[in-house]
User: Fold Amine oxidase from Leptobrachium leishanense.
Amino acid sequence: FSSTLYPSKGRYMASVFSDLTPREIESVHSFLVEQEHLKLVSVEDTFGKNSIFTMELHMPKKRHILNFLDKNGAKPVREARVVIFFGDQPTPNVTEYIVGPLPHPYYYKPYTLRGNKTIRYEARPMSYKEIRNIQQRLVEVTREFDHILLETMGYSFHNCSDRCLTYTDNSPRGVKSGERRSWLALQKNLDGFFLQLTGFEILLNHQSKNPQEWTVEKIWLNGQYFDSVEELVRKYDRNEVTRLKLPHDAESDIFATYIPRGEYKVRSDIPGPKVCEPQGKRYRVLGNYVEYTGWSFAFRSSTSSGLHFFDIKYNDERIAYELSLQEAISFYSGVTPGALQTKYMDSGWGMGSSNYELAKGIDCPETATYQDMYHLYDTDKPIRYKNSLCIFEMPTGIPLRRHYDSDFNGGFNFYAGLENHVLVVRTISTVYNYDYIWDFVFYQNGVVEVKVSATGYIYATFFTPDGIHYGNRVQQHIIGNLHTHLIHYKVDLDVAGAENSFQTLSLRYENISNPWSPGDYIVQSRLVHTQRSTEKQASFRFGLPLPRHLIFQNPNKKNKWGHPRSYRIQYNSHADSVLPRGWKEEPSISWSRYSLAVSRYRDAETRSSNIFLQCDPWDPSVYFENFLRNNEDIVNKDLVAWVTVGFLHVPHAEDIPNTATPGNSVGFFLRPYNFFDEDPSTASRSTVIVKPAKKDFSEVKIQRWTPTLTGQCVSDVSFHYNGTYLPD
Ligand SMILES: Cn1cnc(CC=O)c1
Ligand SMILES: [Ca+2]
Ligand SMILES: [Ca+2]
Ligand SMILES: [Cu+2]
Assistant:
């Protein structure tokens, strides 16, 4: 069966990968709430009770899915994986359950992580309830030093109307497993508050289930530490603290906003170019199934980690079973306690569900197909994130291939070119200050590009002179702290079948006698193929150069020229490790030891990270290193490539107001390498060939296989945007 010939069948097949529907989420929720002994209450009820935090599709086993896709087998049962916070227990904990079958569940069973490990209650991600309680507690604990806040910057938590404070917290929350104490940096609650630092940071212990018992353990003010509010007030009132005076005027706060200003010559009063589809769409989106020229694939958006692709086929032939985002981290350095403490692991901050409305014409072209997503994350009902995923075709503005064939006499023999059209699937996760633009790009020549671009606000800290060793001063009172972004992807390539081998290619110099000039020598490079037979041989640590080419192949399937049919992974990344191996929090990101690790496919090794590692990185419930520890044989086996990309970010003046995307994109390509017999884009009908029709070049003959452009290019619908993501 060819899914491209029968798209509705393609859609049915892809539905095995589709996210939970709102109805499925609701039925799982009601079913669990009916289980009285679970004592589940609403997430809005008293803090520290039992409640459902999140749920998402529990992916069936690969072999069951392949049996369905490839062998006409039964469609696997749909199940949900549900995270429940059990605060109301003698030993509070977090437990995951598998609930099924959907859409009418009647069973639930615990789902255990690494070695049946219990997930500590303190490992849970922050809930909105806890965030609101922190805000409330801050109002209470700052009451006694309100006069200091007012004197310093005229902002406070009390009767503040348009001069209120807010805060940014960081993670991990403590220094060892079982702790829950966070440094909270106070900021002016203005547009761009991430940059409105005030010089106050407060360490709040919020481990107790009773927010009234949450205590201030330390205060940092402009370089000085205090053990209590009482000590701060006493010393301040006795003039033993250097008094800080921040500007009080609104004009000086504009720097953190998008309001046009300044005299740089970037102004133009006419709108810029747009993407246009003069004769309609060349791709088809049916639910979570997409077809585009030779491509077809299924996608979903995991509530915990973001975009996942499955069953990626080119010309009806599978290239990858799965291509999925696993984790995004940013680890910081600095001198304020917040900077010293910040090691963000964004799936622990709801990265997968933080996909908000995309603005047509800015975030994606107006022509894009927009889809809603539904997530249940710290709510009692599924929330619709409208227009939060977009799919569009665009010209890249650079040819896919072209040649001008000169006659070296002022004329030409022919010109030929092929426009480079690609299909892009995009979501954007806004994880507090940062916006990550996730792109998966499908080219006409069998290439897939995976790319993340970082934008949004930097995480910054209050300027003190010693901070300059950890970043640049970017405003009067702000340091942009150095940090490294690392992103982890799972790439389950199935190249010409699931049984693959992994080979690397390097070059070595050889010095040989010149065959046509006796006594002369030639130095040149020679290919060195290295078969990597075990997981250890196929794991490449940061710090050591990656081999030149990384090739996944089926040695038993050859192309017309006798080469094993292969795909290459090619990096576009400037990543490095962020902590020494084994250091405290490092085992929770053990995947970040490797730019590339290749493991044998195992059903149990679905994910390299999870939402619990952020708050308990010291006793990780997933330990990626274990995927490699058994050092399995990887010759002619189902292989998975684990790819880490990233970059060092030393924020500079131009990161104000926001980090801009140019230069801040990293990723990798999946490129055919002897997979085909020639470039498959030769089948494209967009090729244009021009030849001289007369010897004197006074006429040319143009060959094309598509009509010359006609049709309307610009939509008559004016820009609109809504921006909410509220329950329906
Ligand atoms: C609060 N938070 C968590 N992750 C981020 C993005 C990276 O800096 C912010
Ligand atoms: Ca293994
Ligand atoms: Ca594989
Ligand atoms: Cu950054």
About this structure: DSSP finds eight helices and 37 strands in the chain. The two ends are 39 Å apart (CA to CA).
